[in-house]
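FW: tagging you since you asked about this chain on Friday. Here's the raw sequence from the shared folder, copied in full. Didn't touch anything.
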Amino acid sequence: MNRDLTVGKPESVLWKFCVPLFGSIIFQQLYNIADSFVAGKFIGENALAAVGNSYEITLIFIAFAFGCNIGCSVIVSQLFGAKQYRDMKTAISTSLIASGVVCVVLMLFGLLGCSELLQLIRTPETIFADSKLYLDIYLFGFPFLLYYNVATGIFSALGDSKTPFLFLAVSSTSNILVDILFVSTFHMGIAGVAWATFLCQGASSILSLIVVRKRLAGIHSEGKAALFSTQIFRKIAVIAIPSILQQSFISIGNIIIQGVINGFGPGVIAGYSAAVKLNNLVITSLTTVGNGISNYTAQNMGAGMLSRVKDGFRAAVKMVWMLCVPIVALYVLANGLLIRIFMEHPSELALLSGTQFLQIVSPFYFVISIKLVSDGILRGAGQMKQFMITTFTDLILRVLLTMALSAPWGYLGIWSAWPIGWGVGAVLSVWFYRRNFGCLKKSSEV
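HL: got it, structure written out here
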């Protein structure tokens, strides 16, 4: 169902729109969590380390999928809010065509350079073969991941957050069952984990595109929409390229950080792999609110209703802080139990490094959540230069501090880099938001 985000009380509108997005992103993260869970529980600690090690490289490809999602979503949101339905349909087909080209290039890059990337991050020999096998299979399934993300961006732009949630709920649950079947019954090892994701992600992607096509057929537009528009492509690229660069540099930064972590051996790698999956579940959920506020901002700006943006910021901050309270309490008080979910018999070093990561990082979810909401508004408003500044400041600080603090403090120095980078980035994001929207009067919408 399509939803107009330009009418109704902002807090109510955002809750109805974002709650299914929360569910969607949780099920999306279950793909990676399931892989780590099955690898650690049914294969062993080295298998968990291999999946976690490979994950940092997959983030490069996820960055492009995310950028295509955001570029398509923001422009389609603006056109939908302005009720320019013919151009909206052209923007969607343009996004799908451009994403296909991006997909082919990335797959060639990954398949030809996979071994070099693993060597670059100093992958230990004990997990190198499994890491490469997992990545090779992952790359063959990348078209499904990319097009699913574009389809999700289209649904979000139309104000529909429930449809992608339903697809993901079914496919991610199936992924867990197929993971266990392939590994415990068919004894396929790491390959079974990767093939399970390939099959379930593929089914979800194909079904999403079919529904997108049917949904667009039900939206009436004057005249036939063009299949591709260079002008609209440029508008999409203005949003997508900075988003891709942002996520790519974050991925590269994470790869550098992973390389430093790999120097501490498989035990710390396994502990970090488990902890960072739990961390990414939260960050991605918070990012989803940022994506939701981007769609909200874009639709309202397309409709010329700028005053609603400030109300949306307040509602979104309230929403993410309500989410953070129980999560921070859980991660601080029950971190040991959470880390053990991923390992049947964890080594002392793996358990210690994983729990300490959660203890140090999780209290600062309140800080990073404000940054992600502010970034979402900046992106939805097309303020990509400011958006990039805040992201790169956070990333560069975390990478530099990781290298600087790991020598005197060991892996605890690496974990400590997160809160500092998040804090500085949040200050910048809020300052840019207030400079652009702080002077607007409160909306009278109820």
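FW: The chain has 15 helices and no strands.
HL: agreed, and Confidence is low (pLDDT under 50) at residues 442-446.
FW: great, closing this out.
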